Every structure is written in C-alpha cells, then in structure tokens.
Amino acid sequence: MTAMPKSPTEPFQAERLRASLRPLAAGQALSAEALAYQRHYGLDLPQHPAVRSRLGSFTSDGLDLVAQLWLPPEPQATLILLHGYYDHMGLYRHVIDWALSLNLAALAFDLPGHGLSAGPRASIDDFASYQRALHGLLDEAASLDLPQPWHLCGQSTGGAILLDYLLTGAPRPEPGATILLAPLVRPRAWGLSKLSYHLLSPFKSAIPRRFSANSSDPAFLDFLQNRDPLQPRNLPTAWVGALARWIPRIERAQRSALQPLVVQGEDDMTVDWRHNLAVLQAKFDQPQILRIPGARHHLANEHEDIRKRYFAFLSERLR
User: Fold this and answer.
1) Is residue 9 predicted with pLDDT exceeding 50?
2) Torsion of Cα atoms, 272 then 277 then 278 then 280, to 10°
3) Which residue range(s) make up the domain with 275?
4) The CATH number of the domain where 235 resides is what?
5) Has residue 155 been placed in a domain?
6) In this predicted model, what pLDDT tens digit does every residue of 259-292 receive, in sequence order?
7) 63-111 pLDDT, tens per residue?
8) In this predicted structure, what is the pLDDT of residue 1?
9) pTM here?
C-alpha cells in the first residue's frame, strides 16, 4: 500500500494561491501558499533535490489555466502530462517522480474547470476547448524551450484529449512518444449513461458525483474523498453532452500511422476498455498495448506493484 501525503492542519488556500500566480514563463518563485500546496499533494519531491519547480498560469479561451514545471539540471527530454476527469495535476506525483527518474523535465496543467484552473467546475461545452488548452500548453513548452523529444502522457480523459490531438488535428510537429493510461473513448455502460443524460439534462444542470473504487490503493481512495479540497462534487450534464458529441467524431476519425503506448487495467470499471482497445487498434498502426490483470482505472495512483510494472514497460520503450 502506498500512503498519500498527510493533510496539513490548515490546508492551502486555493483561491489565494490562484490570485497570486503570474504567467508560468515569468519564473515566479514559489510562494508560501504554493509550497503548502506542493506539500499537501507530495509534489515537493524531496527525493529529487536538484530539481527546480515553478507554478504559474497561461490563458486559453479567456480562462487562466494553472501549470507546473519540474526541471532537472540537464533534462534530456520532456514529459507533458494531462490528467483525467475530476482530477488535477496534484494527484500525479508518481508519474512525475518516474519522469524525473528518467531525467525528463515534466510539465503538467489543470484542465479548464479542474484543480486550480478557472472555468465552471468539471464542465466543458465542447471537447474542442480541451484541444485549445492543450495547444496553449504546448506553446508554453516551446516558450520555455523545453528539450525535445516531447513525450505526451494522458490518463483517461487526458488520454481522450491526446487521441483527439493525434487523430483529428494537424500532424504532430514535435517528436516523441504518446502514452495513454486507461484512455477514454466510451465510458462503461455508455448506452445507459446517454439515456440518463437525455432524460435529466432538460431538468438538471448537474447530479451529485459518486466516488468509485477506481484504484486498489485504499489510502489514495481515502485521500481523494476526504482530504482533497480540489475534488469536484457534482457531474455537470453539459460535460456528458460534450462527451456524447465527441465520441462519434473520434470513432469516425481517419486511421493514423502513429504507434501510441497504451496501458490498460483489466479490472477497470470506469471505461468500456474492451471496446476502447478495439477502437485504438483500428485507428493506429500496431499500438503497443500492455494489459494488466487486477489493475483498475486510476493507473496513475494504482498499487505500487502495478505502477512498477507499467513504468518498466514505458521506460524500456522511451529509452
């Protein structure tokens, strides 16, 4: 079992932290509030004493989105990280630790409406907004002159955003691997979810969120539900509508010659993973797929033995 960081007596003040942030490219020193935020989520990473980090913002669709950079002294490449739905970059310390162990710079951000970023909580009108946010993050990586290749990594909805980027956008301009952790194409029981959306959306703008056991690490599940002040508590019906419009578009997309690296747990009860893997195999030229028996959906915070297995798979291919 992997223990999550203990919550401080007085958690960081998210609104105060948001208001204090300058553009990421400005290289603002970490404030006391930013340091408290890092400690709360274990992002201070004392096992990497030479790594410098910064926290700042950039603008997309008129929203201030918050990004974070971890920079080793002489990085050889960069990992650009996209989190899943309801998540935020504060929950990805294991992935960041792994990237730094490979001497990669790591750049992450909170999607619109998530974490420290602005926007309606956990909502979006159209998945195209996620593409504009991703392009904004890539522009930040370019302005910071982060070393190439740029490896892209997305968990769940973050993986869906990368699928959209690879399949429907302009050809990827920078070299690097694409890593998809339990990528979303269709959620589990999507037919029932669509029916519920059509019945409820005329009357409700959101429904209460149900926390699921999406990891085999009970400490992570406890932290998520009880000690994470950035967790949304509702599912906006607008987001479900945006997903309903996105799925057929991505399933109709043209085939790509790219070969993403895919990690999928076989006990995933969040996405329709068998359907999703079939879509990926149809859309890409021999994607490299690692299926892990016993692994659930939130691979970034799965049990340590599971993380070690897929990190070894990814490390071998990135090297």
Assistant:
1) no
2) 120
3) 14-318
4) 3.40.50.1820
5) yes
6) 999 999 999 999 999 999 999 999 999 999 999 9
7) 999 999 999 999 999 999 999 999 999 999 999 999 999 999 999 999 9
8) 46
9) 0.95
CA distance 240 to 187: 10
Any domain includes 235 = yes
Exposed, middle or buried: residue 45 (CB in 10 Å: 0-12, 13-18, 19+)?
middle
For 232, the token pair is 């949304």
Q: How far from the centroid of its chain's Cα atoms is residue 42's Cα?
A: 17
Query: Is residue 202 one of the residues assigned to a domain?
Result: yes
Q: Give the Å distances, CA to CA, from 139 to 24, 107, 115.
A: 11, 12, 21
Amino acid at 201: S
d(CA 81, CA 110): 10
In a domain? residue 283: yes
Q: With contact defined as beta carbons under 8 Å apart, do 76 and 103 qualify?
A: yes
Q: What are phi and psi of 227, to 5 degrees?
A: -135, 15
d(CA 55, CA 73): 17
Tokens of 279: 């879509």
Among 37, 155, 45, CA closest to 101: 45
- Show Cβ contacts of residue 290 under 8 Å, excluding neighbours closer than 6 positions: 261, 262, 263, 264, 309, 310, 313
Average pLDDT over residues 27-37: 96
Cα distance between residue 21 and residue 29, in whole Å: 10
| DSSP character string of the chain | --PPPPPPSS---HHHHHHH--BGGG-PPPPHHHHHHHHHHTTT-TT-TT-EEEEEEEEETTEEEEEEEEE-SS-SEEEEEE--TT--GGG-HHHHHHHHHTTEEEEEEPPTTSTTS-SSTT--S-THHHHHHHHHHHHHHHHTTPPSPEEEEEETHHHHHHHHHHHHSSPP-S---EEEES--SSBTTHHHHHHHHHHHTTT-SEEE------SS-HHHHHHHHHS-TT---EEEHHHHHHHHHHHHHHHTPPPBS---EEEEETT--SB-HHHHHHHHHHHBSS-EEEEETT--S-GGGS-HHHHHHHHHHHHHHH-
